[in-house]
Design brief:
The chain has 498 residues and is an alpha/beta fold. It has 16 helices and 16 strands.
């Protein structure tokens, strides 16, 4: 059956093999005109049967040339659409899985081929992906906006979109055979950070029941978060950043006329060259502490045990993101202070490491590797089952170029869309690893435990044993973390003064 009825009307999807896909379903009104920088508004109803065979536009952005998941459609400001894949012969009360894409909150979308949810639907899962506003459309503050909506929420429109999509799922997913009481959210990079934010936001409570974070961090490594209205340490308020952007566009003032002029700007002017290579600009605020959606940092919430208590998986890749600006080994190790001797023993035991390699390892561990372990540890302390992984598998065709698994390269393995990524260069070994990683994620979504199917056992994390599963170049293997000394000293540094 390729038709479904949701709260706003009837849909006709497309059957492909054992899966029906419904694409481009509006979950909120177009965030354009007076809806630019407003919380998502209800989607309008339609008459007749809506064609759901094509993706809606991904959200407005300047695509990033090196993106690991290039967009499949042209971006536009009218972009609040979601997609559903379900088994063609599906039953009722099937588990639901919701993907949140990465892209630094300035790039990304639900249309890339590697994000196709068909493989999950083939396994009896109702799979959902959706778009959320990016860049200055997703994160923007201005005194006129604060006056227009004094009770809030303000500034974090991207997170409001994510919550609206999850609320839509609660109201509508049963129409596709999905169980609104069995929803797993998962995301990578900014999508993983979004999962952690949803786990710590009072506004998202009860909207999901399991969570997976792929290379999503968990510490405050980008420094303190801005507040919407007040200065935070050295950081200007979000409103100040918004005023700076308005001035750049030739718009002065803090009144309704200034806001009207900002909303009248063409979408390309709002983008203003912003993407993953230009994010560090004084006219873009990024995620903010708004007091309603984001009430504290992820790290603060996890340290205080205030995160959602749900079964949890987190991990990162063995050549993940890390930014080191150190010119000498002295620059690398100086921040460790009294921990320096431990750090040197962990990162440069022979004393002959080069600054580029050692600096990168320290930066990567601080940004991605140790924060993943931190979040898993805190979930265990909160009485939940949690599992830790490291993804080290490199597609055979890339092994001469990549000494390890770069950021985001696990995604096609998780989705089992490696054929779309590697094409004719895909090998049997690549496909076998993809089937295995995918199966762990499927079983976690179905059972709240990634184990099953005769695969190597992935034990629940035990802080005393520090065992993770490594998806390595040869096989998947549960073992004590070989980087334990590195992560322990990184953790000690992160906890100084806390």
């Amino acid at each position: 059956m390729n038709e479904a009825t949701v709260e706003t009307g009837k849909l006709r999807g497309v059957v492909s093999g054992s899966v029906v896909a419904f694409k481009g379903i509006p979950y909120a009104a177009p965030p354009v005109g007076k809806n630019r920088w407003r919380p998502p508004q209800p989607a309008p109803r339609w008459a007749g049967v809506r064609d759901a065979s094509q993706y809606g536009a991904d959200c407005m952005q300047l695509p990033f040339p090196g993106d690991a998941a290039p967009l499949g459609v042209t971006p536009a400001e009218d972009c609040l659409y979601l997609n559903v894949w379900k088994p063609a012969r599906g039953g009722r009360r099937m588990p639901v899985m919701v993907w949140i894409y990465g892209g630094g909150f300035v790039n990304g979308g639900s249309s890339p081929e590697v994000y196709d949810g068909s493989r999950f639907a083939e396994k009896g899962i109702v799979f959902v992906s959706f778009n959320y506003r990016l860049g200055r459309f997703g994160f923007f503050a201005h005194p006129a906006l604060s006056r227009e909506n004094p009770e809030g929420p303000l500034a974090n429109y991207a997170f409001m979109d994510q919550i609206a999509a999850l609320q839509w799922i609660q109201r509508n997913i049963a129409a596709f055979g999905g169980d609104p009481k069995n929803v797993t959210i998962f995301g990578e990079s900014a999508g993983g950070m979004s999962v952690l934010t949803l786990m710590t936001s009072p506004a998202a409570r009860g909207l999901f029941h399991k969570a997976i974070v792929q290379s999503g961090g968990g510490r405050n490594l980008l420094g303190p978060m801005r507040k919407v209205r007040e200065k935070q340490g050295q950081l200007d308020s979000g409103e100040s950043v918004g005023l700076a952007f308005a001035r750049k566009m030739g718009i002065e003032g803090e009144d309704a006329a200034a806001l009207e002029a900002l909303r009248a700007l063409p979408a390309e002017k709002i983008v203003d060259g912003l993407n993953m290579s230009t994010m560090n600009t004084p006219t873009y605020a990024g995620p903010m502490l708004d007091g309603k959606i984001v009430v504290e940092t992820v790290e603060q919430a996890f340290l205080g045990g205030r995160q959602a208590k749900v079964p949890f998986i987190a991990g990162a890749n063995n050549m993940d993101i890390g930014f080191s600006f150190a010119r000498t080994l002295e620059d690398v190790f100086k921040p460790f202070g009294e921990l320096r001797e431990r750090a040197e023993a962990a990162y440069n035991p022979g004393g002959n490491g080069d600054v580029r390699t050692v600096g990168y390892q320290v930066a990567m561990d601080r940004m991605m590797i140790e924060p993943a372990r931190f979040t898993v540890k805190k979930m265990i302390e909160a009485g939940q089952k949690a599992w830790h992984y490291r993804f080290s598998y490199v597609a055979e065709s890339m092994r001469k170029q990549w000494p390890g698994a770069p950021h985001a390269t696990e995604i096609p393995f998780v989705f089992n869309t490696v054929k779309a990524k590697y094409g004719d260069q895909l090998t049997k070994s690549d496909q076998a690893m993809s089937e295995m990683v995918h199966a762990y994620w499927v079983d976690f979504v179905k059972n709240g435990d990634p184990n099953g199917g005769g695969r190597p056992v992935w034990p629940v994390y035990d802080p005393g044993k520090d065992v993770l599963i490594e998806f390595g170049p040869e096989r998947a293997e549960a073992k004590p973390d070989p980087w334990k000394a590195r992560l322990d000293v990184t953790e000690a540094l992160a906890m100084k003064g806390k």
